[in-house]
Amino acid sequence: MLPYELSFKGINFKLAGGDVPNGLKCKQNVINLPKGNFTKLYLLAASIQGDNKAEFLIDGKKQEAVIPNYTGFIGQWGHTGHTERFLKAADIAFVGTHKHNMIQNCDLPYEYTYLFTVALDLPKNAKQITLPDNSRVVIFAGTLTTDENNRITPVTDLLNINLKELKSADELFVKKNLIHDKPVIERSAEVNAREKAEYAVDGEMNTKWCDVSANKPKYLVVDLEKEETIKGWYVLHAGLESLDYITKEYSLQIKSSKEGEWQTVDAVSNNNAFETERLLKTPQTARYIRLQITKPDQSEGQTARIYEFQVY
């Protein structure tokens, strides 16, 4: 359970508590800032699906920040030939003692969860902040301060000597979902208006596309409306409904014109993961994107269920 208040380095946060919805998924939300001589905006935040580099706009000016993943290792010991030592550059404001497995309805002890403090510099008389266009980044609270003390940094980082970060900020990139709410121009089929193909690209984790037809393969095609550079893709399967509903075999296909031939740039086989995220070996340029499904579930039936499809 989350507390109602948290304090980190003298910065106080107020939360809604752990028994009510208390996180805001970032979708370019615009927040007007109150008047005051503030120098910093501290956010209580975390990411899903790995660490995410996020782009904030403060009065139209860009600031980037790395929002660490809400779970996983913050650091680990190095054992020659086995594991590599590392320590994440992360300000941990809250540690949860376990995760909850929704499928098996059980707690997972010692699988820790975290909330992090992220600091953004404010120009004088800042009026507005626009949150990232990335629903993987979740904001739990924010505090405005006139903060002089936390500007002090040590000359030498005594804790991190000879340690490397798991992934540096330079290796991350801002993941903007290129197909969010773009037109779906083709589909193999859909059950009805409540489970149409558009719900696979709406950025919501509680809606889905479902195709129960006999058509093979299953597919949906999205028009980006212009050529874009593609670096990776993500699929959220229907594992919360049933483990059998997890898509077993599927691929990402692209082309630059309607008349062109589909090119398979990545393929997944024998998948049993609840969600899959993959980086392409080399970035690709395309306008049209097709998710093609050849084995819709684990028993290789004929019903495809996709909760979310993203390309970035």
TrEMBL record:
Residues 167-312 form the F5/8 type C domain. It holds the Pfam family F5_F8_type_C. PROSITE patterns: FA58C_3 (PS50022). Transmembrane segments: none annotated. InterPro entries: FA58C, Galactose-bd-like_sf. This is F5/8 type C domain-containing protein. It comes from termite gut metagenome. The lineage of its organism: unclassified sequences, metagenomes, organismal metagenomes.
